[in-house]
Amino acid sequence: MERKNAWNTYKKEDLKQLEALSKDYMDFLNNGKTERECTELLVKMAEAHGYKNLDDVIAAGKELKVGDKIYANNMGKAVMMLNIGEDIVGKGMNILGAHIDSPRLDIKQNPLYESDHLVLMDTHYYGGIKKYQWVTMPMAIHGVVCLKDGSTVKLSIGEKEDDPVFYITDLLPHLADEQMKKDARKIIEGEKLDLLVGSKPINDGDDDHQYKRGILKILKDQYGIEEEDFMSAELEVVPAGKARELGFDRGLIAAYGHDDRCCAYPSAMAMFDVEHPAKTACGLFVDKEEIGSVGATGMESHFFEDTMREVLDRMGLYSELNLTRCLRHCKMLSSDVNAAFDPLYADAFEKFNASFSGSGLVFCKFTGARGKSGSNDANAEYLANLRAIMDKHNVMYQTAELGKVDIGGGGTIAYILSLYGMQVIDSGIAVLSMHAPWEVISKADLYEAYKGYKAFLIEG
């Protein structure tokens, strides 16, 4: 059962729309390298499309009704959007759920030290990474430093052409004989992912920690940050540089953060482009998926259902029974990426059930590990319904597993939402080199995901 390559189906107008979407997506990636930055961008986009802050609605004592568009901001790290349609209790919602956090390195709370004429910062890796991939490349620092006076310093250093960048060193091949004998998981150990941030001593007549004090002076003079302020900072180390078109034909996009912003962005655009859905449209853009969807801003928090309580209350419909009915009647696309078949590593895939770059939106009936452990296993009836919707709207799609059965696996937020009794399936974009500092997707798959998400909101 072969699937067509989407590029072979496009007419001139399709290609024009595809390129416009890809350009805007690359801009989104360039300006949204952290979950905080993505949240800020999504809120601005939502407000530009007529969405109102739910907190403002509640504070003003206003009612909500069919046709209203609202958003809820969870601690500046996650966003929920609603475009209210008919009979939210009896029909539920069509939900697009994606995550906006990505694998990275986090700077520790007591990070700065000097050693042998160099100044470094301790880091702690976030999410599943191959540690050896994160060395010897330009890095940027993004995040916030919260001061005791209640103010917040926002940082984004390493992205502008005249910014300095940062770096994690590696051992030269000439001296790496013992290192190269190690298991790949130990070639670079977590505590060796320290960020090189300086080398010039401060010339003030005091030889004590003059290299570290030189960096602290810069932090104080340029950003108003003291060393102890790192205790209340959230600083993320990510690859420096902009998303780039890849290949002579420019059909691919290489960038940091495709997982899972390549699903979040088309989900948001689908929300904005479906003006009056018959059934309530919901967009969930959450944090912490890469470390298990935990914490106050992850999908396992009560933010989603608590927000729905507030919405139902503003509509005069709130009861726990109505909430239960609403959530049970929902349908969801858990919009997360899949592993694209890579001919260089064909042994990791079962080719007949792999996703391919350029073949469109990927539906993954189950994720999990090996014997479907930890998986949401979608119902066949739901898959049949989605097939009909995608075919009606001429969306190119494919089905896939996440690699060979015994090799490994993965998970998404799908299983969490399925606990409410709603129909949920994983759907997303095929990614080459997933979780690497730079990942790769097809522009065609980005376009088909947007079309598929929009069709789902209209017909689901």
Question: Could you list some keywords that capture this structure?
Answer:
12 helices; 460 residues; Aminopeptidase i, Domain 2; single chain; 9-stranded mixed β-sheet; 6-stranded antiparallel β-sheet; alpha/beta
What topology does this entry show?
Blueprint: H1 12-31, H2 35-48, E1 52-53, H3 54-59, E2 69-74, E3 78-83, H4 88-91, E4 93-99, E5 104-115, E6 118-126, E7 139-146, E8 152-157, H5 184-187, E9 195-198, H6 210-223, E10 233-239, E11 244-246, E12 252-255, H7 258-273, E13 280-286, H8 303-314, H9 320-328, E14 331-335, E15 338-339, E16 361-364, E17 368-369, H10 380-392, E18 397-399, E19 409-410, H11 414-418, E20 423-428, E21 430-431, E22 439-442, H12 443-459
Parallel strand pairs: 1-2, 4-13, 4-14, 14-20, 15-21, 16-18
Antiparallel strand pairs: 2-3, 3-13, 5-6, 5-10, 6-9, 7-8, 7-10, 11-12, 12-22, 16-20, 17-19
